[in-house]
Amino acid sequence: MTTPPPYQQGQPYQQGQPYQQGQPAYQQQPPPYQQSPPPSNPGPAQPYQQAQPYQQGPAQQFGVMYVPMFFVKQRITVMVNRYEILAANPDGSEGHLLAFVEQKRMKLREEVNFFADPGKARRIFSFKARQRLDVHAQHDIFDENGVALGMFSKQFGASLLRSTWHLSAPGVEALGQERRPIIAILRRIWTLIPYLGDVWVPFVFHFDFTDKASGAPVLVSERQKAIRDRYTVTVPDQRLDFRVAASMAVALDALQSR
């Protein structure tokens, strides 16, 4: 398998080097993912062909797209889940669009696509379930060329009382859980109450992912108090590719009720 080149955004990312606070890294760079202009008549996005699932193994050394902090915002729609992934400016405010996300509901096999812009002319990465209608299905994360970047899965037994996820990427094996067990239990009790369980309640819950070997933090997703779902995502582990982190962050909302 040919190793994909590192992500280019004006200047290539340096593996393991985060953005430097105080520099206008997000404001004066060209739009993200614009390595080449999109075709004038791209037509509908085509599915990946013969994408191979992620294989756990030793860390790979090709360019990691590292983004230390970003935001995930849900768009209110009826039949499709849509999200925006936004960069974080040095002052912590929302920056430019990193990806536009779309998940079609009621599919037998979950698939979520990440596009360069709302026009959806260019798919830049995605994740897809290996199994159909499986509450603990494994989901593979692919780059725009169909190369596997990592995988994640929900641990069904452990999630009965407290949602628990496994995340795997080159050099990273992490376990993610809801931060507050009491909130996790309250959310489950609320859904069991007749009639009241159908009333939407904006429970504020957070997820912490830690390295299975060292216990060091890998990824943190914190839900904000808002009518529509909004998350602040930080990535302390510089080994974790942005595309893997963004996929996991979206899955925590889109697949949470699975």
Please provide a written account of the structure.
The chain has a 12-stranded antiparallel barrel. It has a two-stranded antiparallel ribbon with strand order 1-2. 31% of the residues are buried. Strand 10 (164-169) and strand 11 form a beta hairpin. Residues 6-36 and 195-200 have low confidence and may be disordered. It has a single domain (62-254), classed as Tubby Protein, Chain A (Alpha-Beta Barrel). The longest helix has 13 residues, at 242-254. It has 2 helices and 14 strands. With 258 residues, it is mainly β. The protein is globular, with a radius of gyration of 18 Å.
Q: Output mean pLDDT.
A: 76
| Secondary structure: number of strands | 14
Per CATH, the superfamily is Tubby Protein, Chain A
Instruction: State the end-to-end CA separation.
Output: 33 Å
Shape: globular
Please give the CATH class: Alpha Beta
Provide a count of the helices: 2
| Strand arrangement across the biggest beta sheet | 3-4-5-6-7-8-9-10-11-12-13-14
Question: Which H/E pattern describes the elements?
Answer: EEEEEEEEEEEHEEEH
Unreliable stretches = 6-36, 195-200
Determine Rg (CA atoms, Å). 18 Å
**If you consult CATH, what is the topology?**
Tubby Protein, Chain A
- Under the CATH scheme, the architecture is Alpha-Beta Barrel
Strand content: 25-35%
Count of all domains = 1
Task: Please bin the fraction of helical residues.
Answer: under 10%
Query: Structural class of the helix and strand makeup?
Result: mainly beta
Mind describing the biggest β-sheet? Answer: 12 strands, antiparallel, barrel
